[in-house]
Amino acid sequence: MTIFLQSLISGILIGGVYALIGIGLTIIFGVMRVINFAHGDLLMVGMYGTFYLFTLFNIDPFISIVITMPLMFLYGGFLQKVFINRILGSLPQNQILLTIGMGLIMSNGIMLAFTSDYKILSTDYSSSSFDILGISISTPLLISFAITAGITAVLYWFLLKTDTGQAIRATAQDREAAQLMGINVKRMSIIAFGLGASLAGTAGALISPTYYIFPQVGSTFTLKAFVITVLGGMGSIVGATLGGILIGVAESIGGVYFGSGWKEVVVFVLFLLVLLFKPSGLMGKSNT
Amino acid sequence: MLTIDKLNFSYGDLKVLWDINLEVHEGEIVTVVGANGAGKSTTLKNISRLVKPTSGSITFQGEDIEKLESHQVVERGIVQVPEGRKIFPEMTVLENLRMGSYIKSARKAREANVERVFGMFPRLKEREKQLGGTMSGGEQQMLAIARGLMANPKLLLMDEPSLGLSPLFVKIIFEIIQEINRQGVTILLVEQNVFQSLKIAHRAYVLETGRVVLTGEGNDLLSNEHVKKAFLGM
Amino acid sequence: MKPLLKNTTGIGALPAIAGLLVVVLLFLFPRFVENTYALHIMILIFISIVMGSSWNLLGGYTGQYSVGHSAYFGMGAYTTMMLMQFRQVPPWLGIWCGMVAALVVALIIGSICFRLRGPYFVLASIAVAEIFRVSALNLKNVTNGAEGILTTEIPPLKIGGTLITDFSSKVPFYYAGLVFVLLVILVTWLLQNSKLGYYFQAIREDQDAAHSLGISLTFYKNVALSLSAVLTSLAGSLYAVYVGFIDPSTVLALDLSVQIVLICIIGGIGTIFGPVIGALVLVPLSEALRSNMIGESLINSGIVKADSAFGSFLTENLSHAHVLIYGVLVVVVILFMPDGVLGFAKALAARKRKEAV
Amino acid sequence: MAILEIKHVSKFFGGLSANSDVSFEIQHGMIMGLIGPNGAGKTTLFNCITGYYPPSKGDVVFDGRSMHGLQPDKVCKLGMARTWQKVRPLANMSVVDNVMVGALCRTGSLKNARDMAMEQLKVVGLEHRSGFLAGGLPIGERKKLEVARVLATQPKLLLLDEVMGGLNPAESEDIIQLILAIKGLGITQMVIEHDMKTIMRISDRIVVLNSGEKLAEGSPQEIVSNPDVVAAYLGSE
Amino acid sequence: AKVKIGFVNSITGPEAPIGENLTNGVTLALEDLKKKGIDVELVKEDDTGKPEKSMAAFEKMATRDRVAGIVGPYSSKCANAIAKLAEKYKTPLLIPVASKEEITRQNLKWTFRLSATTYDYATILLDMATSLGRPKTIAIINENTDFGTSGAKSAKDYAGKKGIRVVAEEAYAPGSPDYRSTLTKIKSKKPDLVFMVSYVADAILLMRQSREIGITPQAFLGAGAGFATVSFAKEKAISSNVFSSTQWTGDVNWPGAKEFNKRYITKFGKEPTYHAATAYESMMIMAETAAKAGGNREKIRSELKSGKWNGIMGEVKFADYEGYTNQNKHQMLVEQIQNGVHQTVYPPKYVSKKPVYPFPGWK
Ligand SMILES: Nc1ncnc2c1ncn2[C@@H]1O[C@H](COP(=O)(O)OP(=O)(O)OP(=O)(O)O)[C@@H](O)[C@H]1O
Ligand SMILES: Nc1ncnc2c1ncn2[C@@H]1O[C@H](COP(=O)(O)OP(=O)(O)OP(=O)(O)O)[C@@H](O)[C@H]1O
Ligand SMILES: CC(C)C[C@H](N)C(=O)O
Ligand SMILES: [Mg+2]
Ligand SMILES: [Mg+2]
């Protein structure tokens, strides 16, 4: 029982960070219909930012998100404006490859700049935890879970209730029509990619204290982000949140009951099952 | 109010507009008729700057719109109800309408406008929460028109608004067009329903293979032999 | 939209002769070239062409962008290697089993993934391929897990007692690769000129419309996938036997799937020679970058001194930056040649022709 | 004998019934007009008949055979073809290739298919466009292409969903002649159209849908003089 | 004398973090060779961690660049692919650190290996544990990679021989941020020994989370790689008293080892890992032999075969034994982290500090 509860709890906590990664991707996909294969690399950039803010200026990772978030937003906006905007109308596979290329540039650029060494960000709470009923709860993960929850709530409100948020969604559904409504679609794309990048960067910042950093770290998370987004339903924030937590829990519990080696299989099988019964994901709206 | 001067346009290698000259005065209903592929929709797209002309100029209230982006054109008061409706499929009817009044100047009047268009199209009120993409063809057409009205346009470009509407509704639509025109909205109307549109139009242009071949008052054109033969099948 | 007149009727005489000439030259190539390094690169190019062309059948013609083709590549590689290493089945028989295995896998994957469309399909294809990778890692008894399979010896190929080859040189692999390449090109050509090809393209353009015109989506998508998978497995088998070592992270990796798509798109999608061009560009390019030939030739030609600051930058840093440069090139191609190298060349030629007229 | 029997077909979307208990028959060789206000359920009925949606209730019998559970491709093979209200050209294929795809439903040979396709293009008057990419055609020609393509599948029953929408009267006249010519070939048709003049001219019988239910059925004359139809659909002059 | 030597390594790609150590080791070797009057023209090739790329690199160096001998590659999978090429091109290949047993079990005459094998990583740890205490049970956690799986297999195998019962076996995919549930499961089995094979970063994660969960065995045993790194040692809160097997330590009393350690730190600003030392020594051996043999490959091979060295990696000799060909019977070491520093604690001959055993519990 303890084992089950322990895996459930740590699954949920990790799932929170996954959710944040997934939400970023889902926004990017939602608005631009671009599958961002560089998403993990954005996360990686966020991690490096956090790492150097911590080692050079001694800024705590959880506090540094105030800096990482806007910086990553600008960075994402820049990528959108300079690269992705040019291919928005083109075939989906071209978009995939463009983001793959961008990912290669990011990870190898970082490698040239900071070597491929593993970097470890050790705070004094990195391995601190507390016990409830024999279940250990990691303090940094709990904090990051809380932050994630907050960010998600704000985003949800933003996209559903504000005009800008709705305009972002409108742009996603029909660019030309959005233009005819007086929506500046280029700006919406920049905001969307900026938001996506900033969320990925924030997720990077949030796991920095408990994880490690190296130039290729992104690929694991890119794949995870895909699974989460599709599972939840592309473009759906609630879906991505749900998907993230579900994946976290599935990994954790799957690892215990099927063996660590199989936990990814558990995740992917779960993923396929959901798609088989609900081809547009948990929260996806089907309109085909 | 709107002046198009020597507009030329091509899709890639295919030239579709040749030296188009067209004028719309404040308060008018101007209609453009022409066979399929004549370039009517393309002309409207040029005005909304969804595509950029090869040469020629378009001025609106004295301002050259050359330098404007699509969304800025809308801010100036030119709103288009596009061909093919272009509803936001995954937004509800109400959300679609709200997007219609996205521009700043229209936001204040949003609630009032929603009521106004619901009055015109009761079906939309019934289906307030239905997703745009699941509405029937004609219902989507109503939504598209309603959405266009939400922006409080000065100049409303309508591309085949009666397409797919039942006879009853076609009648209603033409009444609505005249009604909003009376309320001070200038209208540039592209229609296949040549008879009806010429009847309500102050002036009209006839487009053939990308060129303006005829222009005159709506009623005059109705009795024009060429128009009768080519468009009215008489 | 470009109102292009499409030429679907046969090939002209001139290109046909040129093509034949190229094929003959390719068959004679190993006789003239002693340099095994060149042969190695040629073999890698062949493998890439086979991968790219096979993907093209599904991605380019049928519009189903699978980013999970490593599953079929790996299936071919693993089946052939396992049979050879654990059951002493020679590879020229193993390859057939690899094709069958890939076919079976394709049918399973197809039945799951083809319910999905667009990006959902893309991501599902990745997921399924990942399941295969992780399973191969975990099924140690069958696949030897992460330790991979290392071949010690390939049995010599004899036909009726006469030794054809003992696989001690690269030449047999070269010919096998060349034959596979000709095979996939032939299949693509036949496809383009058949009902099947029309149906594939119809599905690519609009699934619902295709469906209403009497095209069974499930059936034809599965046909496309099966063809594609079977041919991909050929590339996998050849790779495995040639390299002599496989493990999940090389033959079942997402990386590989991406590489396959890349070849096709860089070359030009939905055309017979797109993948060929793609492989001809990508493989030598990445090899030149990897082995730092640019920096080297700059130094060797005396333009840059080896011990100058720039020289040491070239030798030291550039060797770390080759993947970066590769990434930059990919981005540049996508941004400026959205229809691939082939499409770009065609457009350029068309413009030239127009200017000449 | 009836070529198509629609038996108590209902279709629900959540709480909304887009078709409820619709029944009627179509006889061989005739043209059946299907009219009704926007959102009456006409397109939905087409979708139910051709296998895009399984009807929530009821059955469709074509040529004596129940269509229950058949996919659209099977339905097409059996001889029932439909066009789309929102046209769906295969944009990156040429016009003739588009039609060939339809023709390939009946032949395996590309040459035959090409001949059949060119023939249909002549029928609809698009042969001058045969080498163009379908995506570049204007709406009217797209509609013609749509018709040519389904004709190429050699249907026994043709379902046309607003093929005249967006055409001016002169152009519509072409299509009307086309429809009448198709009738001359012995092909049964069911036609959705909003233009009453047209419908009156071409239909042998008319079914009127309203709010998903069958409101009326009868000859064109009966329909225009039916007060319910006038109230719900035509509006009084 | 001037010699041309090839060096294949994982400079980019997922193996790059460790590959970098090898590059640095070779850089130092070149400096020392120069001092000895041997001018090495180095042909450096990246294999990006992919077998077919390492093959291309080998082909190029053997045929186009005509190098006298080749050092590398880093990873076992690449070494697997090119060992046979060495045979084909009659080009001596000296493998510094790739440790898969099979590589030198194919009776290949041109492939030499300085490194100990994966099997040795496991055995030395269990030898030590049984000499210090009486462990009865063992839990094995390994990453699901080549090195990880074979390491775990060896541990299981050898534990059987030593009469230690395996109570848990967990193979995980590297790079997961959360091992807590796995560790909880292991904790419930109360193993005497926790044996882990992990690359750099997961080692830290595993230990951090072991501490959170509160696992307290007699000893944590890490088979090389991640546990032998400096970044791991620096995490005092979690690394204290963890044992790790290694091929080399900075304080071992092999000739030149300590100096190498110091020079490396001054030059690269961080401590060397054993990978760096093996690469350094391999390059030294290859280049010196090649210089002596005047670049003649056949001669280099026989010199390598008959030669004997004693440098920073201790005694090196490429011998044929127990099915191996040209395999150096390298002496493995065990180090323990005490106060953030790796101390050599086993075998007794090389000890610098006394081992702390059993594990005294978490701070
Ligand atoms: N996206 C496009 N790419 C290429 N050509 C196009 C495109 N859109 C339209 N055309 C071509 O431009 C010409 C004018 O088309 P346009 O849509 O403006 O005609 P229209 O007068 O609105 O016709 P309709 O009454 O059918 O709507 C047509 O010949 C059409 O083939
Ligand atoms: N997928 C769906 N989900 C929910 N409601 C739907 C869906 N499809 C259609 N409807 C609703 O069902 C009703 C019938 O739609 P249908 O498209 O059949 O109308 P129609 O008679 O073809 O109208 P029109 O003449 O406007 O094309 C409409 O009110 C529509 O909003
Ligand atoms: C852990 C390392 C020393 C590398 C390992 N020997 C390998 O073969 O990949
Ligand atoms: Mg138009
Ligand atoms: Mg309809």
Topology of helices and strands:
The complex is a heteropentamer of chains A (288), B (234), C (357), D (237) and E (363).
Chain A: H1 2-32, H2 39-57, H3 61-82, H4 92-114, E1 119-120, E2 129-132, E3 135-138, H5 139-161, H6 163-173, H7 175-180, H8 185-207, E4 212-213, H9 218-232, H10 237-258, H11 263-277
Antiparallel strand pairs in A: 1-4, 2-3
Chain B: E1 2-11, E2 14-24, E3 29-34, H1 40-47, E4 55-60, E5 63-64, H2 70-76, E6 78-81, H3 93-100, H4 104-107, H5 110-120, H6 122-126, H7 137-149, E7 155-159, H8 167-182, E8 186-190, H9 194-200, E9 203-208, E10 211-217, H10 218-222, H11 225-231
Parallel strand pairs in B: 3-8, 3-9, 6-7, 7-8
Antiparallel strand pairs in B: 1-2, 1-4, 4-5, 9-10
Helix pairs in contact in B: 3-7
Chain C: H1 13-32, H2 36-61, H3 70-87, H4 91-113, H5 118-138, H6 140-143, E1 149-150, E2 157-159, E3 162-165, H7 171-192, H8 195-205, H9 207-212, H10 217-243, E4 245-246, H11 248-251, H12 254-267, H13 274-290, H14 293-300, H15 309-336, H16 340-356
Antiparallel strand pairs in C: 1-4, 2-3
Helix pairs in contact in C: 2-7, 2-8, 2-10, 2-12, 2-13, 3-4, 3-10, 4-10, 7-10, 8-10, 12-13, 12-16, 13-15
Bound molecules: adenosine-5'-triphosphate (2 copies), leucine and magnesium ion (2 copies).
One adenosine-5'-triphosphate sits between chains D (13, 16, 18, 36, 38-44, 85) and B (134-139, 164).
What does this structure look like?
- Chain A: This is Branched-chain amino acid ABC transporter permease.
- Chain A: Keywords: Amino-acid transport, Cell membrane, Membrane, Transmembrane, Transmembrane helix, Transport.
- Chain A: It is found in: Cell membrane.
- Chain A: InterPro entries: ABC_transp_permease, BCAA_transport_permease.
- The complex is a heteropentamer of chains A (288), B (234), C (357), D (237) and E (363).
- Chain B has helices at residues 40-47, 70-76, 93-100, 104-107, 110-120, 122-126, 137-149, 167-182, 194-200, 218-222, 225-231, and strands at residues 2-11, 14-24, 29-34, 55-60, 63-64, 78-81, 155-159, 186-190, 203-208, 211-217.
- By secondary structure, chain B is of the alpha/beta class.
- Chain B has a 6-stranded mixed beta sheet with strand order 6-7-8-3-9-10, sandwiched between helices.
- Chain D has 237 residues and is α/β, with parallel strands linked by helices.
- Chain D has a domain at 1-79 and 199-237: Rossmann fold (3-Layer(aba) Sandwich), CATH 3.40.50.
- Chain D has helices at 42-49, 72-77, 95-103, 110-124, 139-152, 169-184, 196-202, 220-224, 227-234; strands at residues 2-13, 16-27, 31-35, 57-62, 65-66, 80-82, 157-161, 188-192, 205-210, 213-218.
- In chain D, the strands form 2 sheets. Chain D has a 6-stranded mixed beta sheet with strand order 6-7-8-3-9-10, sandwiched between helices.
- In chain D, helix 3 (95-103) crosses helix 4, helix 3 packs parallel to helix 5 and helix 4 (110-124) crosses helix 5 (139-152).
- With 363 residues, chain E is α/β, with parallel strands linked by helices.
- Chain E has helices at 16-35, 51-64, 76-89, 118-132, 146-162, 180-188, 200-213, 230-234, 236-239, 257-268, 274-292, 297-306, and strands at 2-9, 39-46, 69-71, 93-95, 111-113, 137-143, 165-172, 193-197, 219-223, 243-246, 309-311, 314-316, 318-321, 324-328, 333-338, 341-346.
- Chain E is globular, with a radius of gyration of 20 Å.
- Classes of the chains: A mainly alpha (288), B alpha/beta (234), C mainly alpha (357), D alpha/beta (237), E alpha/beta (363).
- Chains A and C meet through helix 4, helix 9 and helix 11 of A and helix 5, helix 12 and helix 15 of C.
- One adenosine-5'-triphosphate sits between chains B (11, 14, 16, 34, 36-42, 83) and D (136-140, 166).
